[in-house]
Here is the input.
Amino acid sequence: MLNIRVERTTTPKAKPAPGQKLGFGHIFTDHMFIMNYTEGQGWHDARIVPYQKIELDPSAMVFHYGQTMFEGLKAYRGANGEAYLFRPDMNAKRANNSNDRLCIPQIPEEDFVQAIKAVVAIDKDWIPTEPGTSLYIRPFIIATDEFLGVAPSKTYLFIVILSPSGAYYESGLAPVGIWIEDEYVRAVRGGIGFAKTGGNYAASLIAQVKAHDGGYSQVLWLDGVERKYIEEVGAMNIMFKIDGKIVTPMLNGSILPGITRNSVLFLCRQWGMEVEERKVSVDELIEAQKSGKLEEPASWRRSSAPAPPPSSAPWASCATWTRS
Ligand SMILES: *Cc1c(COP(=O)(O)O)cnc(C)c1O
Here is the structure.
């Protein structure tokens, strides 16, 4: 159980107006949670403070070798005005799996959840109410030792920031064009694909830019060895319905174990649907589509958008990519 010191802002910011387009991850609330780790002392100085910049030495280890992890979940406002979180204990467990892989000290699950609940409670009025909106919660840890050697840091910061957000994808729930990437890979077994960490995203940018240039909005990743089996899409897991069964790539160490994935599979099984977690190849999907067994996605077809250009000068392309 954390002893959290609270310092409230004396200059609250204007909240987004009802109906204002929020986008994703642009707006931040009045407060943040922050806690330090020091070797020998453990996690300490849990506090909620006004949202503010943090000061780090240029040699802070996170900048150089990427020892960092993050989580992502949402708070929703219920009909009675109360804040609801969706399975935050699962995020706490996954955070510690990421921490273990990255040699970051664990945070007790109940402390992780307590920190989130405390800061969400303080900024509860920032939870948007329009359909399709929520308060996005971003817990993360960074390595802060001032040292250029390669080793696990002995000091860290754990921070939770909150961002009232709309849909993650500009197009909302409308179908989007997906580019199946067979040049670059996101992760390999034995690597850090199952951990929620910046490095996986740094590795993914180039293919994302390539897909955008070709008129596609998302990248579907294939396995890093044979580039034949489906892994996941951008920042989400993927499922198909083939011949009446729900089929999804099995967790193999290179796929991020999504809490949405876990929840959907649980519900499908509860409802008596047949669920298969196994290898799924692109060839299998094409075959299933040809024989009429691919039920979902129902509108599967080859896009008429041109293949993305080869990434001969990737930086030129990266630099001109405008974000939504
Ligand atoms: C966060 C994330 C997901 C989805 O996880 P949820 O817990 O369902 O939100 C899927 N893939 C990647 C690469 C992710 O970072």
In short: The pocket of pyridoxal-5'-phosphate is lined by residues 72, 196, 232, 235-237, 256, 258-261 (CB under 6 Å). The CA atoms of residues 3 and 46 lie 7 Å apart. Residues 198-213 form the longest helix (16 residues).
